[in-house]
Amino acid sequence: MCQRSRIYIPVHTLGYWYLITNIINFEQVNNLNMALSFAMKH
Questions:
Q1: What DSSP string describes 3-35?
Q2: Which of 17, 19, 32, 41 has the fewest CB atoms inside 10 Å of its own CB, making it the most exposed?
Q3: What are 9-33's pLDDT values in tens digits?
Q4: Which domain holds residue 26?
């Protein structure tokens, strides 16, 4: 249990930071999503 919590805690913090950066850089993320969708179509 302790080993799992040690692994999960940094993953959760990274996830929260990822959400925060997505909210701050919403326009950049939107452009990235458009680029990804374009790449998937082709």
A1: HHHHHHHHHHHHHHHHHHHHHHTHHHHHHHHHH
A2: 41
A3: 666 677 888 877 777 777 777 787 8
A4: 2-41
Q: What residues have CB less than 8 Å from 22, skipping those under 6 apart?
A: 29
Indicate left, alpha or beta for 34 from its phi (over 0: left) and psi (-120 to 50: alpha): alpha
Q: How many domains does the structure of the chain reveal?
A: 1
Which amino acid, 31?
N
Structure tokens at 36: 């990804």
Q: How many angstroms separate the CA atoms of 12 and 5, rounded?
A: 10
